[in-house]
Write a structure and sequence with these properties.
It contains 10 helices and 9 strands. The chain is an alpha/beta fold and 286 residues long. The longest helix has 23 residues.
Length: 286
């Protein structure tokens, strides 16, 4: 029997995760009390196999003490159930923005507790759950539910659809600081800077004229001649070591032109190698 417990911050995508798993054949239950989880699992095990894939959502709505959830996880694993804990999170500003856009109330909001205080408080309360999680998904940079479903498909879809190493390629500007989550960082400030071309300054590295300008340089060609074979070598090594996620960051001064063009190119190249890949551009709008 396979069981996935979905938890995480309100507004981070738990409902989308539950809907996706339901589409994948899981029997999904929202806000199941932790005390009842082992009993329900027993019923599933004693049945005819109709409930061999179950997903349950357990979050702050069930209370602020998660000891019962941890006991339920341990009990179900002792029963021989393949039980995994999936934790969804996002940055505090991203969650606040989502609540404001949907005009929903946060479960901890109300009285003298503001929305920002509620989100910060929930993050602190759920820290022990995050520590126990088998899978963690950060949905901060997901523009829509489709991107979250794509990540979930890589994790929990059929084996023919799933690759075990997910790669995120992101661009950034050094003037705004290094991305803390990066595993590999490449500095492309040596490339010709479109910022100094008046007709290119207002565009980004996602626009064809900027990409043509960046990749027309001999330095860009020689850089890719070395970097692409290196990536083709490194990714299988990370996969062999059991890595499930790799973040590659490409930086230039402002994160708008050179790094964006290079990150976009590398994301396409990694996708051609057959790896699930996403791209994001942290500072493109600054």
């Amino acid at each position: 029997m396979q069981m996935i417990i979905i938890s995480g911050l309100s507004g981070a995508g738990k409902s989308t995760a539950g809907e996706f798993l339901e589409d994948e054949g899981f029997y999904t239950i929202d806000n199941m009390p932790a005390l009842l989880m082992p009993r329900f699992a027993e019923l599933c095990l004693s049945g005819s196999g109709g409930y061999d894939k179950v997903a349950m959502v357990s979050d702050i709505r069930g209370g602020k003490n998660f000891d019962e959830l941890f006991c339920a996880l341990d009990t179900m694993r002792e029963m021989g159930i393949d039980c995994k804990l999936l934790f969804l999170e996002a940055s505090v500003p991203a969650i606040i923005k989502r609540f404001k856009e949907t005009r929903r109330s946060h479960p901890l909001e109300g009285g003298t507790v503001s929305l920002s205080q509620a989100v910060e408080g929930e993050k602190l309360l759920l820290a022990p759950v995050r520590e126990r999680a088998d899978y963690i998904i950060d949905s901060t940079n997901f523009a829509n539910n489709g991107q979250l479903r794509s990540v979930l498909r890589q994790m929990f879809g059929t084996s023919s659809e799933r690759m075990h190493l997910r790669v995120n390629v992101q661009s950034f500007g050094y003037k705004y600081g290094l991305p803390l989550e990066a595993d590999l960082v490449w500095d492309v400030r040596f490339l010709p800077n479109p910022f100094y071309e008046k007709n290119l300054r207002s565009q980004t590295g996602l626009d064809e004229p900027v990409r043509e300008y960046v990749f027309a340089s001999e330095a860009a060609g020689r850089f890719l001649e070395r970097l692409e074979p290196l990536l083709a070598f490194l990714l299988p090594q990370y996969l062999q070591e059991g890595r499930t996620e790799l973040v590659i960051a490409v930086g230039c001064t402002g994160g708008r032109h050179r790094s964006t063009a290079m990150a976009h190119h590398l994301a396409n190249y990694i996708g051609e190698l057959g790896y699930p890949v996403s791209e994001s551009h942290r500072d493109i709008s600054r």
